[in-house]
């Protein structure tokens, strides 16, 4: 029998959007479908890892073999990730976490009034940055969703969040990004590796990305 590359390893994957409540009937969110993150979790299982999938609200069935933790908001996702962080070998942050949430969650439905209104927003905690600051032996893999200068901004996030790897998507590329079955990304490591993965199904892409990360991770970082 062949030993799978992630046998005996724990991988935590986050996926999907977060949902930030405004009142009992309204929220702020984004267009993440969870497909990329669910594909990363499936790839981790196939490579032999014990896989924890922490998912925002999506309509996908979880891949067989994962432990699924459902969360709603950025705050809940942070708590769930922290619960599993110290035991994790890899954390893969595919989720599109809200950067802002309403400053107050109204208990009753907000009534409409004449004229304009505005919503006061406050920052959420940057989960990945928090993990980067706490990092001991974990390998941290982030994603970056950019609409301009994708590689430059992606490399900035790799440094500022103390990541080992970042997977950069230019979400304006018609071949990939939010919601689609395919994606096109560049994988960048702290050690200077930079690999462009052409457009392909997210499931196949996830497998190639994780395989590369695990292989390179053992010798060159
Ligand atoms: O779900 P799909 O429809 O398949 O789409 C896939 C995807 C485009 C959502 C995915 O490939 C992707 O790029 N995910 C990351 C989206 C994102 O939030 O990127 P960002 O550049 O805003 O954030 C950078 C990194 O910091 C991400 O790993 C993110 O999870 C993390 N982050 C961001 C904000 C925050 N408060 N906490 C975080 O941990």
UniProtKB/TrEMBL annotation:
Write the record's keywords in alphabetical order, separated by commas: Decarboxylase, Flavoprotein, FMN, Ligase, Lyase, Magnesium, Metal-binding, Multifunctional enzyme
Q: Where is this region: Phosphopantothenate--cysteine ligase?
A: 11-221
What cofactors does this protein use? Mg(2+); FMN
Pathway the protein takes part in: Cofactor biosynthesis; coenzyme A biosynthesis; CoA from (R)-pantothenate: step 2/5; Cofactor biosynthesis; coenzyme A biosynthesis; CoA from (R)-pantothenate: step 3/5
Q: Which part of the chain is the DNA/pantothenate metabolism flavoprotein C-terminal domain?
A: 6-215
Residue positions annotated to bind CTP are 99, 109, 143, 157, 161
Q: Which domain of life is it from?
A: Bacteria
User: Which reaction is catalysed here?
Assistant: N-[(R)-4-phosphopantothenoyl]-L-cysteine + H(+) = (R)-4'-phosphopantetheine + CO2; (R)-4'-phosphopantothenate + L-cysteine + CTP = N-[(R)-4-phosphopantothenoyl]-L-cysteine + CMP + diphosphate + H(+)
Q: MF terms per GO, please?
A: phosphopantothenate--cysteine ligase activity; phosphopantothenoylcysteine decarboxylase activity
Enzyme Commission (EC) number: 4.1.1.36, 6.3.2.5
**How and how many cofactors are bound, per the record note?**
Binds 1 FMN per subunit.
- Protein family: In the C-terminal section; belongs to the PPC synthetase family. In the N-terminal section; belongs to the HFCD (homo-oligomeric flavin containing Cys decarboxylase) superfamily.
What is this protein's function per UniProt?
Catalyzes two sequential steps in the biosynthesis of coenzyme A. In the first step cysteine is conjugated to 4'-phosphopantothenate to form 4-phosphopantothenoylcysteine. In the second step the latter compound is decarboxylated to form 4'-phosphopantotheine. Catalyzes two steps in the biosynthesis of coenzyme A. In the first step cysteine is conjugated to 4'-phosphopantothenate to form 4-phosphopantothenoylcysteine, in the latter compound is decarboxylated to form 4'-phosphopantotheine.
Stated name of the protein: Coenzyme A biosynthesis bifunctional protein CoaBC
- Species lineage: Bacteria, Bacillati, Bacillota, Bacilli, Bacillales
């Amino acid at each position: 029998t062949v030993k799978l590359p992630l046998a005996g390893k724990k991988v935590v994957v986050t996926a999907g959007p977060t949902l930030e409540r405004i009142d009992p009937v309204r929220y702020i969110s984004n267009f993440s479908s969870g497909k990329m993150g669910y594909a990363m979790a499936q790839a981790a299982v196939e490579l032999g890892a014990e896989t924890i999938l922490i998912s925002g609200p999506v309509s996908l069935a979880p891949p067989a073999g994962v432990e699924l933790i459902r969360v709603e908001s950025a705050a809940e996702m942070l708590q769930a990730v922290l619960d599993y962080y110290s035991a994790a070998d890899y954390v893969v942050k595919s989720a599109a976490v809200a950067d802002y949430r309403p400053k107050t969650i109204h208990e009753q439905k907000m009534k409409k009034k004449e004229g304009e209104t505005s919503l006061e927003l406050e920052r959420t905690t940057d989960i990945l940055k928090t993990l980067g600051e706490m990092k001991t032996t974990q390998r941290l893999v982030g994603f970056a969703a950019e609409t301009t200068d994708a590689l430059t901004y992606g490399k900035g996030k790799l440094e500022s969040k103390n990541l080992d790897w970042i997977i950069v998507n230019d979400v304006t590329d018609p071949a990939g990004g939010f919601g689609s079955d395919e994606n096109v990304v560049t994988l960048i490591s702290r050690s200077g590796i930079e690999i462009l993965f052409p457009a392909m199904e997210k499931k196949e892409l996830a497998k190639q990305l994780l395989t590369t990360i695990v292989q390179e991770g053992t010798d060159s970082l």
